[in-house]
């Protein structure tokens, strides 16, 4: 039932200042174009030339404080892509989606107004302790998992006709988040999550076990501690080559040594 999905979507997204329809549509774009350098929407790589021309402030956000980048992405999207999750005029959306976007934006403005009223009633310390601090934890967690599932030196990215949906879907990696795995609907089983777009979260573990023997070497999984994977990917994955239909991340350090 679309109306029920939308209702639950608004109830769960608006309190954390995420426009439900805007995020729903951009995340759908990500799933339909995973690992496509030109059309992916989530943590896609910049090219070497783009990296060299990137302003310092943008580099700092993307490569050093990227675990806090999500709110900025909602307002401005990612490098070299214009648009906002809050405006129906954004290139993210079709004209037919105009009122969905307006609805989500109005609800989010209402949430900001509610937070303002509660802050007026109970003070800034209330806002910091009971909303801002948990919100920052949420942002860091979301950026962490989305970054790690698509940022790994061994994962290929594609251009042009060399990209297909299946190639892109399997160009993600499973991670082990320990005790948090089950709390967050087994999000670490990310390969199956991308191959089967409509799979319920409670079937992800079974689906993962079923596809592993079929995929063989094409199934990517890391058993590294999360902190180590985060460090390795952040220092190893800066950009991809300007040319080539199948490319991999490299870093400024490797380029200098080469």
Write the layout of secondary structure elements.
Blueprint: H1 2-13, H2 20-32, H3 48-53, H4 56-63, H5 70-76, H6 98-122, H7 124-150, E1 157-158, H8 165-169, H9 180-183, H10 190-195, H11 204-215, H12 226-236, E2 246-247, H13 252-257
Antiparallel strand pairs: 1-2
Helix pairs in contact: 6-7
Individual helix count: 13
Q: Please report the total strand number as a whole number.
A: 2
**Structural class category:** mainly alpha
How would you write the strand order of the largest sheet? 1-2
Overall 3D shape: globular
H/E element string? HHHHHHHEHHHHHEH
Question: What is the C-alpha radius of gyration, as a whole number of Å?
Answer: 19 Å
Query: For the report, how would you describe the main beta sheet?
Result: 2 strands, antiparallel
Measured as a percent range, the helix fraction is 55-70%
Distance between the termini: 55 Å
Determine the mean pLDDT: 93
Proportion of residues in β-strands: under 5%
Low-confidence stretches: none
3D architecture notes:
The protein is mainly α. It has a domain at 2-151. 55% of the residues lie in helices and 2% in strands. It has helices spanning 2-13, 20-32, 48-53, 56-63, 70-76, 98-122, 124-150, 165-169, 180-183, 190-195, 204-215, 226-236, 252-257; strands at residues 157-158, 246-247. Helix 6 packs antiparallel against helix 7 (124-150).
Short summary of the structure?
This protein is mainly alpha-helical and 258 residues long. It contains 13 helices and two strands, in the order αααααααβαααααβα. The mean pLDDT is 93.
């Amino acid at each position: 039932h679309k109306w029920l999905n939308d209702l639950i979507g608004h109830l769960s997204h608006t309190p954390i200042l995420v426009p439900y329809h805007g995020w729903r549509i951009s995340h759908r774009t990500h799933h339909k174009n995973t690992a496509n350098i030109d059309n992916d929407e989530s943590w896609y790589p910049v090219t070497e030339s783009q990296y060299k021309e990137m302003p310092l402030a943008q580099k700092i956000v993307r490569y050093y404080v990227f675990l806090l980048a999500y709110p900025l992405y909602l307002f401005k999207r990612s490098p070299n892509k214009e648009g906002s999750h809050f405006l129906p005029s954004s290139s993210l959306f079709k004209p037919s989606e105009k009122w969905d976007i307006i609805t989500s934006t109005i609800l989010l403005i209402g949430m900001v107004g509610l937070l303002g009223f509660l802050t007026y009633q109970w003070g800034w310390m209330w806002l910091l302790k009971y909303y801002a601090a948990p919100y920052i934890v949420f942002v860091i967690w979301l950026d962490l998992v989305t970054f790690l599932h698509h940022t790994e030196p061994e994962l290929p990215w594609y251009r042009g006709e060399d990209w297909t949906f299946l190639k892109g879907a399997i160009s993600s990696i499973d991670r082990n988040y320990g005790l948090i795995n089950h709390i967050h609907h087994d999000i670490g089983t990310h390969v199956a999550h991308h191959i089967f777009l409509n799979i319920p979260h409670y079937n992800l573990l079974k689906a993962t076990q079923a596809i592993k023997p079929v995929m063989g070497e094409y199934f990517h999984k890391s058993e590294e501690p999360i902190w180590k994977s985060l460090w390795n990917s952040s220092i190893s994955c800066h950009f991809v080559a300007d040319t080539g239909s199948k490319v991999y991340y490299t870093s400024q350090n490797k380029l200098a040594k080469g």
